[in-house]
Amino acid sequence: MYETEAERDTGGTAAGEEASDRDSGERPVERRSFLNALLFGAVSLLTMYGAYAVGRYLWPPRGETAGGELGQVEAGTEDEFPVGAGKKVLYRGEPVWVIHAPFGFVALSAVCTHLGCIVEYDPQKEIWCPCHAAFFDLRGNVKSGPAPSPLPSYPVGIVGGKVVVGEL
Ligand code: FES
Q: Residue 153 pairs with which residues in a beta bridge?
């Protein structure tokens, strides 16, 4: 009926488990404290990781190279960029709009110079910031709104039929 000798000695009841805990020197309170500390540690790690991920999204790192050895990034083939087309790429860790404007290709930082929101591009509206309604022309100059300075621009050109951002 009893599976172990300890159960037989104690009658196989809760009293037997208490006796077993006393024998092993462990106390239920210590186990509970340990589990609470483990849970607290896991929740703390998850919270820190979440804060880090949100921080990387809101303030993308600058100075990293997202492209090849020369720090160049391919935005796509020339055929994918009829006049008016635009595509957002990551260049040196920063979002950049590559746009085929009527006067040629431009690569403009997508980070608004007001408070750092990511600007949007639409061939009809040109470039605008959804946060406080700053508008920019296709050369990055401020047309209206609170942005204090133009969007920084980067070198862009065609290499082997591909639109490339970076020093050529
Ligand atoms: S952050 Fe772009 S207008 Fe304010």
A: 108
Domain ends where: 13, 35, 58? 58
User: Which tokens in the block code for residue 132?
Assistant: 């406080």
Q: What does pLDDT average to over the chain?
A: 82
Distance from Cα 146 to the centre of ligand 1, integer Å: 7
Asked if the structure places residue 16 within a domain, the reply is yes
Per residue in 28-83, pLDDT tens? Answer: 678 888 888 889 988 988 888 878 777 766 665 554 445 555 588 999 999 999 99
Q: Residue 153, exposed/middle/buried by CB under 10 A (0-12, 13-18, 19+)?
A: middle
**Mean pLDDT for the stretch of residues 86-108:** 94
N residues, the chain: 168
| CA distance linking residue 155 with residue 152, whole number of Å | 10
Calpha distance 73→165 (Å, rounded): 5
60 neighbors 73 (Cβ within 8 angstroms) = no
Mean pLDDT calculated for residue range 134-141: 96
pTM above 0.70, yes or no: no
Among 97, 111, 115, residue to substitute to test ligand 1 (most atoms within 8 Å of Cβ): 115
Residues 161 and 104 in one domain: yes
Atom of ligand 1 nearest to the CA of 146: 3
